Amino acid sequence: MVKRNNIFFFVITIFIGFACGNVNSTKPNVVSNQKKLSYATCFKIYDFKTYQLIEILNQQQTISNYVLYKNEKPQLKIKDAIYVKTPVSKIAALSSIYIGFLKQLKVLSKIMAIDNYNYVFNDSIQLEVKQNKIKEIAINGQINEELAIQLKPDIIFTYFDPSTVNSKNQKLNQVRIPMISLVDHLEQHPLGRAEWIKFFACFLGNEKFADSLFLVTEKKYNDLKRIAATSKIKPKVLTEHKLNDAWYLPAGKSYMATLLKDANTNYFLENSEQTGSLPLSFEDVYSKSVDADYWLNVLFCKTKTDLLKLDIRYGDFKAFQNNHVYNNDLLVTHKGANDYWETGLTQPDLILNDMIVILHPELNLNHQLRFYQKLK
Amino acid sequence: MKLKTTYTFLILGLLFVIAILVDLTIGSVSIDINELLNFFNGNLSNEKSVILNQIRIPKMLTAIFAGMSLSVCGILMQTLFLNPLAGPYVLGINSGANLAVSLVMLSTGSIININNEFISSITLQGAAIVGSSLMLVIMLSISKKFSQQAGLLLIGFMLSQFISAIQSLLEFFASPEQLKSFFSWNMASIGNTTLKDMPIFLIITLSGCFAAILLANKMDLLLLGENYSSTLGLNAQQLRLFIILITGLLAGITTAYCGPIAFIGIAIPHVSRLVFKTSLHLIIIPASMLIGAILLLFCDVICQLPNNGIILPLNVVTSFIGTPIIIYLILKSSKQQLA
Predict the structure, then answer these.
(1) Cβ contact, residue pair A58, B123, below 8 Å
(2) Is B103 domain-assigned?
(3) Are A52 and A45 in contact (CB under 8 A)?
(4) Residues A297 and A288 sit within 8 Å (Cβ to Cβ)
(5) Is the ipTM of this complex over 0.90?
(6) What residue segments make up the domains of chain A, in order of their start?
(7) pLDDT digits (tens, 9 = 90+) for A173-217
(8) Would you give the distance in Å from CA A298 to the centre of its chain?
(9) How many CA atoms, within 13 angstroms, populate the side-chain half-sphere of residue B243?
(10) B111: containing domain
(11) Which residues on B lie below 8 Å from A243 (Cβ)?
């Protein structure tokens, strides 16, 4: 029996040994060179004399390292680090939010490839795709490596999970096309996600410009937060709608919950400690939010009738009865691309502004809604 | 070997070569047969050489190894359980790999925060191998206690259901990004391998297939039923262990590199039996290896056909192509039997 167990553990140990990688790496002493970031927690920038080191993190663990250099490639002992010569001039931006960042940085002309035309809101990018000047290289959510190699961009920015793109990464790295897997979607604070503009700027060589842009966004956001806080009314808010049996609501430490908190609202999950979304039962949400004053982000519903078609009981909600249901789909192309995801996420002050206008009419903010519209 | 069988093998060999050539020349970037010949002479442009070296050749080899492995697994399982619906994944090997992969993919974010440095350092391939191997060890231990195949089949099925439930629970709490990654892994792909992966894939595939061929005569006896075959001197218990071990290795390595590929494992053995009109394992095993490889190569070609940058998911194509073929062959065979 003992012998059999030993064999079992030996086999498992071998498999686990085979399975593991990317554990140990030697890095230079970096603490003193770290660039200060105000909100972003999923990347770090270290400035050195001849190069920059960028770490991407998930839950405080480094998941990838990028070494950016201008002239001579530094010889560093950082395992699995990807080396990128900067500034890059030919970019594959495989998510609409990256287009938003690059637009802010005024380098849209450097985009030579996108993921899918249907997801792009920006007019000029749409036009260039139609003119075949910009190619689609991840139409079905997978990078088409053959097209990528043929186009040979200086860099590919993608949101794909690093673990799933590992082999593609190896292939593209061998032909010196660095593929960067970004995790900006893991940021919990809207300004944290907006601060990723500094990440892009490192590759483009316009960091000071990015810093100044972010400072403007940060100031506008915090000014709006202060204005919202002056209101004595704290409206009760509900978001999303149920999908099958689960009503996925933003958890207390999520991006949306932070926005709702900064908009000075009463959201029943605001004190939960989780991130991401929480799947709750209909009766749970019903009992806690049937009297919510406002209902935001109702996914694909364009009208109140659409909501009722999904579930007649939505008609019981106070926000529904008072015509206080809003969706973030004011600027959407006929293909479904939404500027909320392209511009809104890079400039969250615009989203917060919309929210305050909707949720605090008593503040009389003179502002035209940019992303939100009332359901008819 | 009968002359007809030899000719059929020759035709399959020819089809195999054609399938390889077609697979190497079809893709998002145009590479014709002359360019392919230039590549082998070392006279092709750098960009196209890279595409062939880095993408198409590893993909073509993966299609061949995966097609061979899954087809042999299918034969082994159908013989072991004397059940035509058995396939490489009935032992829960697929579920074990799926669960391990979903644990790695879904280990961050979501409310189930498995924030563990060890888990996040495991690659998907590694996770799939660990998951399928653990299931294999469990099934091997169970198989020693059961003399009836039906019991083993049922336990494999039940374990699969149990593991699927855990997996569904993880998916329920996952973020959209995590779900998307997991969904695309589940759609299977032969395009995620590199040339570096090929030696180990080749060694395991060839060893597994060779071991299966060595067991061919014993498996013929097993088809007569366990009781009858034991009177002929067959150690059924030992054979069963070997079959499970080979299946685990072949299905495990294929799932690790390609994800769970549908249809091939169940259907190819039937296609081989219908083409060669025999159940002799010494013929059916090599025939299935060839047919499995050819079919997976052609499925990959079809995946590339939209030709505007879109690549269809492999499992959609294997099912679309495979299901009508097998239904046609079964109908044809039943008509012949009636006649």
Answers:
(1) no
(2) yes
(3) yes
(4) no
(5) no
(6) 25-215, 231-374
(7) 777 889 998 989 889 999 999 999 999 999 999 999 999 999 999
(8) 19
(9) 30
(10) 60-286+305-338
(11) none
Could you tell me the fold of the domain covering A25-215?
Rossmann fold (3.40.50)
DSSP state string for A218-244: HHHHHHHHHHHHT-S---BEEE---BT
Q: Report strand pairing: A155-158 vs A135-136.
A: unpaired
Reading across the β-sheet that carries A294-296, which strands appear in turn? A237-239, A294-296, A325-327, A373-374
Tokens of A278: 């929480």
Check CB contact under 8 Å for B105 and A23: no
CA-closest candidate to residue A323, choices A288, A298, A295, A286: A295
- Mutation site, A117, A143, A161, A177, interface B, largest B CB count within 10 A: A161
CA–CA distance, B249 with B265 (Å, rounded to integer): 14
Residue B107 inside a domain? The answer is yes
Q: Count CB pairs under 8 A between chains A and B.
A: 133
Q: State the first-to-last Cα distance of chain A, in angstroms, to the nearest integer.
A: 71
Nearest to A125 by CA among A140, A108, A139: A108
Domain A231-374 in CATH 3.40.50.300? The answer is no
Q: What are the Cα distances from residue A45, in Å, to A204, B39, B247?
A: 14, 43, 48
DSSP A25: -
Between CA B158 and CA B250 the distance in angstroms is: 22
Determine the distance in angstroms separating the CA of A258 from the nearest CA of chain B, rounded to an integer: 17
pLDDT digits (tens, 9 = 90+) for B206-221: 999 999 999 999 999 9
Residue B18 covered by a domain: no
- The confidence score (pLDDT) of residue A30 equals 60
Q: DSSP labels for B247-268? A: HHHHHHHHHHHH----SHHHHH
- Residue B36 forms part of a structural domain: no
User: Which residues does chain B have within 8 Å of residue A19's beta carbon, measured at their own beta carbons?
Assistant: 122-123, 125-127, 129-130
The enclosing domain of B77 has a CATH number of 1.10.3470.10
Mean pLDDT computed over every residue of chain B: 83
Nearest CA in chain A to B53: A171
Q: Quick one: average pLDDT of B192-197?
A: 84
Per this entry, what is the length of chain A? 376
What Rg do the C-alpha atoms of chain A give, in angstroms? 23
Nearby residues of A291 by Cβ (< 8 Å), 6 or more positions away: A236, A318
Interface test with B, best of A136, A145, A182 (most B CBs within 10 A): A145
DSSP A72-107: SPP----TTPEEEESS--SEEE-SHHHHHHHHHTT-
pLDDT of residue A166: 55
Strands (E), A162-276: 179-181, 237-239, 247-250
User: In this predicted structure, what is the pLDDT of residue B112?
Assistant: 39
Q: Considering its fold, how many domains does chain B have in total?
A: 1
